[in-house]
Write a structure and sequence with these properties.
Blueprint: H1 2-10, H2 13-42, E1 51-56, E2 62-76, H3 77-82, E3 95-102, H4 106-109, E4 113-117, E5 121-125, E6 131-135, E7 140-150, E8 153-157, H5 158-207, H6 212-243, E9 246-251, E10 257-261, E11 265-269, H7 276-292, E12 295-296, E13 301-302, H8 305-336, H9 341-353, H10 358-381, H11 396-420, H12 424-432, H13 437-464, H14 471-474, H15 501-510, H16 515-550
Antiparallel strand pairs: 1-2, 1-5, 2-3, 3-4, 6-7, 6-11, 7-8, 7-9, 9-10, 12-13
Helix pairs in contact: 2-16, 5-6, 8-11, 8-13, 10-11, 11-13, 12-13, 13-16, 15-16
Length: 556
């Protein structure tokens, strides 16, 4: 029996099973973690039921509470007693259930969330006419709609007001889109061109070419732009007057009546009166808004499109920068450098660079790229903008270069491994047919090593997309007023700051003034960051697989 067991151990099968068990456990933990993130993040967008409760306060008075249940927990009476709460009314029970109620109406009550004890709920109901409003400021509003007014005149009341609200809200949304187009695209483009004219005039002064003719040409262009700006400004003011026309009166849980302009409302719904089909449509629309809209309310409301755009653009730019540098370095070390102590020392240094903390790269990027390189670029090419920096300040290009420097050791090592796997006979055969060493390298060796290069890029993308610490120093911000890509020449603005999903998670999770409102958005943003990284990696993996199929002779 011992001999059979000893032979089984020596055969190596226990280690195979142990390895399989470890891989299976890792996969289960990863899937479980993603499931936890998905449930907590995606569940936030589902229209939860609104409760109308009669609640007994600690002083014995009965208060009406309206809101949705955001969370629940069980807590001991000892904890409540330590918190200074009276627990005599609960008798001899050991613990009770507590509910986290999202009451909204922060502009009325000053509180967005409150914990309530389940035993103190005297009654609760889910009236079908309870309305939830998502607003551009002050968070959600929960209550009953009482009337709708146009220019101060009463249009409809109660149930009729609810039916009148939907078409008027659609009208407001269309006007809001037009205002956004006017402000960001048309007026923004004119402001950008006016600023360029100011810089052109300043450059003429610095170069001593500010002749009356040149200044007159700039002045003509400036007047044309100002005339166009004035016309657009009048149009914008008319749109604002139009969007402020309608308002609704809502009754809050305390009985207060609040007038809310429709211009401040994003969407309105009655969750208690919605069926499964309506809730599914609302859920998809809310999810799409989260992906496609700009953030609001200190990043605790609205969407995260600028962060998605900034993350993807930075990763793509980083990949374009890191690949040639990493491949050239690997080719030199493997194909041209003399294999001696110095080369071995360089490889050790490259491997050590992969273990340097990312914040160190951030400090280096800030000091070298931003202050030294960017400052000199401003002195040489953008003197007209000084003292305001152009490239001498954190931005997209410096963030991409910093992350390229951070991930270049990964690309070097992966490319070197691919080059070492190519048989020497292939190189010798190419040279025997009359090709030069450079032609052999370019036409034969590098194409066959391209799958390994893509492996290095995949690993670089996987690491760079989730980095936050260095980006806080070299370009990422809490809220970017403009995307790095727009319709103004030169269209790609590498000097602009940008938003990033990783930093967005940090900002919402740890810097938010409304922690409870931000918590589900942290989960949703984390899930989206994982999906973006997976999508980028799958794209690179598909390219690598195609290259591997094309150069399959490497495996034979």
């Amino acid at each position: 029996m011992r001999e059979d067991f000893g032979g089984w151990v020596k055969s190596g099968k226990p280690w195979i099973w142990l390895n399989a068990a470890a891989v299976s456990a890792s996969l289960i933990m990863v899937v479980g973690l993603l499931g936890l993130i998905a449930v907590n993040g995606l569940g936030h967008f589902w229209p939860s039921a609104l409760w109308d409760m009669q609640y007994r306060m600690p002083d014995g008075k009965v208060q009406r509470l309206i809101g949705e249940i955001a969370d629940r927990e069980r807590t001991t009476l000892e904890r409540l007693r330590e918190a200074g709460m009276s627990v005599k009314a609960y008798g001899d029970v050991v613990d009770i259930e507590r509910l986290l109620l999202k009451t909204g109406n922060r502009d009325v009550s000053g509180l967005d969330f409150r914990w309530i004890n389940a035993p103190d709920i005297l009654s609760r109901d889910t009236p079908g006419n309870l309305v939830a409003l998502e607003r551009t400021e002050w968070g959600n509003f929960y209550g009953f709609i009482r009337d709708i007014r146009e220019g101060g005149e009463l249009i409809a009341e109660d149930e009729a007001a609810w039916h009148e609200l939907k078409p008027r809200l659609e009208r407001v949304q269309e006007i809001r889109k037009r205002i956004r187009t006017l402000e960001r695209d048309e007026i923004g483009a004119i402001n950008y061109r006016l600023e360029q004219l100011r810089l052109d005039r300043r450059r003429l002064e610095l170069d001593g070419e500010d002749t009356p003719e040149a200044l007159a040409a700039i002045e003509r262009k400036r007047k044309e732009l100002e005339a166009a700006f004035t016309a657009l400004q009048k149009n914008l003011e008319a749109r604002y007057r139009e969007i402020r026309r309608d308002a609704i009166t809502m009754e809050a849980m305390g009985g207060e009546r609040v007038s809310i302009p429709l211009a401040n409302i994003v969407r309105a719904w009655r969750p208690n009166a919605m069926g499964l089909f309506d809730k599914t449509g609302f859920y998809l629309a809310k999810l799409w808004g989260f992906v496609s809209e700009d953030p609001r309310e200190a990043n605790t409301e609205g969407g995260i499109f600028p962060a998605i755009f900034g993350t993807v653009m930075m990763v793509l730019l980083m990949s374009l920068l890191v690949t040639p540098f990493g491949v050239v370095a690997a080719v030199y070390l493997r194909e041209y450098a003399t294999q001696g102590p110095l080369t071995r020392l360089i490889r050790i240094a490259v491997n050590n660079l992969a273990g340097v903390p990312s914040i160190v790269y951030g400090v280096f990027g800030l000091g070298f790229f931003v202050y030294f390189l960017g400052g000199n670029i401003d002195q040489l090419f953008f003197p007209e903008a000084l003292p305001a920096p152009t490239f001498g300040t954190p931005g997209l290009m410096w963030a991409s270069l910093t992350l390229a420097l951070l991930t270049v050791p990964v690309v070097i090592v992966a490319t070197e491994e691919g080059l070492s796997r190519i048989p020497r006979s292939i190189r010798e055969g190419s040279l025997a047919l009359g090709a030069t060493k450079a032609e052999t390298l370019w036409r034969t060796v590098l194409p066959m090593a391209s799958p390994a290069m893509m492996t290095g890029v995949i690993l670089a993308v996987a690491r760079a997309a989730g980095e936050v610490a260095p980006l806080m120093l070299v370009g990422v911000v809490k809220l970017a007023p403009a995307l790095p890509l727009d319709g103004n020449a030169p269209f790609i603005h590498l000097d602009r700051k940008f938003m990033h999903l990783g930093f967005h998670i940090y900002d919402v999770g740890f810097q938010s003034p409304n922690v409870e409102a931000a918590r589900p958005l942290v989960y949703a943003t984390a899930l989206l960051l994982v999906l973006v990284i997976v999508a980028l990696n799958l794209t690179a993996i598909s390219i690598r697989n195609r290259l591997r199929e094309r150069y399959r002779t490497l495996d034979h």
